[in-house]
Amino acid sequence: MLEVIIAVIAVLAGVGGTVAYEKNRQAGAKNNIDKDLAAAKAKAADILLKAKDEALSLENERRKDFKKTEERLSEREASIVKKIDELDKRSEKLRAEERGVEDLKDEIREIRTKQQEKLEKVAKLTKADAAEKLMTMTERDIKQDMVGLINKLQNDAKEEAEEVAQTILVTAMERMSSEVTAERTVTAIKLPDEEMKGRIIGKEGRNIQAFQRATGVDILVDDTPGMIILSSFDPVRRQVARMSLELLMKDGRIHPGRIEEVVAKAETEINKEVNRAGEDAAREVGVVGIPKEMLRLLGELKFRTSYGQNVLLHSVEMAQLSGLIAEEIGADVRITKTATLLHDTGKAITHKMEGKHHHLAAELARKYGMSEEIAHAIEAHHDDVEATTPEALIVRVCDSLSTARPGARNVSSENFAERMRDLENIALGFKGIDKAYAISAGREVRIIVSPKDVDDLSAIKLARDIAVKIESTMQYPGTIKVNVIRETRAIEFAK
């Protein structure tokens, strides 16, 4: 019993001690918090005070800056006002001086008018009459000198122009390199054996009739061994027929059904070749923007010849030559090259349309939207249309260079020289002619007549008669100009 009481007393004593300790701990913590709070308030008061001091300091500095800026602006404003005043004073001074200058001008005009009136009274001539009289006297004195000077300048210009033209042509020909003889289109087909003629003709002529219907080309089978001839005015059709016949002979199967199939295939290939030839020619010359229709006609010239000269190669050669000349004399290179490249495209349709090839080519150029400068240069490359532009003259000159030079066409040098002699002999066969010269590679015959035997009207008739005789007795490419010259010279000697 006593032990229980002692245990209860011990427990009560422990609880009381714990309660007393907790109260003491809480009281100490409260004292610490109060101290910390007081310290924080004191620190915050110090920070706020320092911030106020710094703000006051910044405000003072800003006021000082504002004051300095205000002082500078005031000084600048005063300076501007001073300058404006100076400018006003200067302007007023200039206006006064201008008034003085105008007064002086008026005074000078008045003096000049009075002097002129006095001179007119003394000379009894007005100013206009005096000027006219002076001009008349001057013109009379220098007229003869001016005539002589103009004649000298004209003669010098002609001589220099001829030398420059010769230099340009020779330089262009030296820079232009091409084959002497152009390729020729073959219309004769060589057969592997005589038996092939019979196979081409077929039973009762069925094969040859089917071939002629499909191609539009006549086949001439004669006694010439191992050879047949294709005849057509259309060079493209003739080329289709040649390719078709070669394919048929190579394949060995020749009958109407096979002929139609092979001809259709050959037409497709030739069309591709024509288009490619036109595009390649334009690319080689360096000309762009040509309509497809004109390129097609240009490509067809690959199968067209003129006196043995391939027309497409002739056009390409001309375009390259004309570009060199145009660059030398300052003409439009693009117009010149385009016109020379297309100048003979009318030959691709002369078997379909009436008219001269240069007129047809110019009409086609206009039809397909090409410029009038190009169309005129194409149309004027022969003598029946006057060339009014430098480009047209270049096309005409290059056509002469390309076609008339020996070796360009299927004419030997002996035949060429003989044709030149024939031209001169035809002209010399008429009465009243002193001399005759075939020039420009046979494209012109120049005739000098006796002024005593041939008058002006007779000279015109003589030129026509000679041209008619040349047309009726000679074969020649292009045109030949008959130039009859009649002159009278009066010569006297001063002793």
Helical residue percent band: 55-70%
What is the string of helix and strand elements?
A: HHEHHEEHHHEEHHHHHHEEHE
SS element count, helices: 14
* End-to-end C-alpha gap: 194 Å
What is the number of E strands? Answer: 8
| Physical arrangement of strands within the biggest beta sheet | 1-3-2
Structural class: mainly alpha
Largest sheet: 3 strands, antiparallel
Quick structural gist:
The protein is mainly alpha-helical.
Describe the 3D structure.
- By secondary structure, this protein is mainly alpha-helical.
- The chain has 14 helices and 8 strands.
- A 3-stranded antiparallel beta sheet has the order 1-3-2, with helices on one face. A 3-stranded mixed beta sheet has the order 6-7-8, covered by helices on one side. Strands 4-5 form a two-stranded antiparallel ribbon.
- Strand 6 and strand 7 form a beta hairpin.
- Helix 11 packs parallel to helix 12.
- The longest helix has 122 residues.
- The chain is flat, with a radius of gyration of 54 Å.
- The N and C termini lie far apart (194 Å).
- About 2% of the residues have low confidence.
